Amino acid sequence: MFGKKRYVLLIPILFLFACSHMKNNPTVQNTTTDIQMTDQKSEEVSYQVLSGKNEFKSQDFNEKFHPQWKRQFSSNYPDFIPQVLTNDGELMGEVPNEGLFLLDLKNDREELFYDIKDTPDVSNLWVRAVNEDYVFLEEYSLKKEQSSYRVMNRNTKEVSTITIVEGTPQIHEVQTQFLNTHQLILNYFTKKVDQAFIYQTAIYDTLTGELNIIENQNTTSPVFFKGKLYYILIDNKNHKTSIIEYDLNTMEKRTVLNNPSANNYMTQLITTDDFLYVVLGVVHHGGTIYKVNEEKKTLDWVYGFNSLGQVRVNHQYVTWSTAPENQQRTKTKIHLIDLVSGIDYDYEDSLLFLSDNGIAWVSFVKDMNQIPKGDTFKQGNSEIHYMLW
């Protein structure tokens, strides 16, 4: 029923424990439904957390990755900020105050494919997920504190509104992935209760326009793994987190794992083709990646890391950013590891983008320390390299 995931951008949700995104005439009137489901069992399911240390092999990035195409940034849209790499080799992102833009990395083509010049209240614009047929995007208005989530048909350019959320804070995040050609799983901010930001998990169907709520309690990091949906359930009151398994056919839930540590929260789920992983740590500060071993009821140490919050995952690759590591580097440091091969790549350039079919990276063409802040994605300062897997 559900196919291979496409163009996934996974970012740890920013949540606060209790102690402390109408234009283009959208054409589909969408409905929201609370799915009736069997509650997960309440028994405590605990795992032994195994200690360890980082033992990944170090390898120079340029030994493994060789660009098949090189592309200059656009001179027509010099303010382009890349966000997502598609499977057909297009780098999509925002041109502030103008819209969403793409660069075809294999062909000499560029396009402003979503125009917001007539929508002055839009402060930020994001491509949240994309497959062959649809672009899922968010328009955010700081003035209105409002997120408008929309889906655009890539063939007809028809735009439909999924939902509009009032009261969205400026700092918020969205996690999405396509389950198949027409269904999208999304996790997004819905409300604030006391001091806690509440994110809910839902499935949107582009054919029917229905938004079905899978979990209206506070959740994060939904992933599709071996035919089932997994996500982290957050208990703000008791400062607990749990991994929940949701059967998309029977709508039954099962608690896979309760928070195994009083000091480390489960902040993100990661999957490869064969294994489910969980990150224990502090949101936006990093932590440790553990492999979930259901048979032995253990969490097996894989890799510990620090992070500024940008964690992207695609199959076996994980990339994140940290602050500059020394005075010789003025730009954000980007990291890349291979979970399957156990390799930590030594990478010195700018942002990395992952798709099912390839990898793109922003390569400096001059000394990074000579590039003014905010000018990385401009001709003469860097170029885009692209390689198929």
Please explain how this structure is put together.
With 389 residues, this protein is an all-beta fold. Helix content is 1%, strand content 51%. The strands form 7 sheets. Strands 1-14-15-16-17-2 form a 6-stranded mixed beta sheet, with no helix packed on it. The chain has a 5-stranded mixed beta sheet with strand order 3-25-24-23-22, with no helix packed on it. A 5-stranded mixed beta sheet has the order 4-29-28-27-26. The radius of gyration is 21 Å and the shape is globular.
Give the topology.
Elements: E1 6-9, E2 31-34, E3 48-49, E4 57-60, H1 61-64, E5 69-72, E6 81-85, E7 90-95, E8 99-104, E9 109-115, E10 124-130, E11 134-141, E12 146-153, E13 159-166, E14 175-178, E15 183-193, E16 196-205, E17 210-215, E18 219-225, E19 228-235, E20 240-246, E21 253-258, E22 265-271, E23 276-282, E24 286-293, E25 298-306, E26 311-314, E27 317-322, E28 333-338, E29 343-346, E30 352-354, E31 358-364, E32 382-388
Parallel strand pairs: 2-17, 3-25, 4-29
Antiparallel strand pairs: 1-14, 5-32, 6-7, 7-8, 8-9, 10-11, 11-12, 12-13, 14-15, 15-16, 16-17, 18-19, 19-20, 20-21, 22-23, 23-24, 24-25, 26-27, 27-28, 28-29, 30-31, 31-32
| Poorly predicted runs of 5 or more residues | 1-31, 33-39
Shape: globular
The total beta strand count reads: 32
Radius of gyration: 21 Å
For the residues shown, what is the average pLDDT? Answer: 86
Structural class: mainly beta
Largest sheet: 6 strands, mixed
Assess the beta-strand content as a share of residues.
over 45%
Oligomer: single chain
Kindly state the percentage of residues in helix: under 10%
How is the largest sheet built, in terms of strand order?
A: 1-14-15-16-17-2
Number of helices: 1
Termini separation: 26 Å
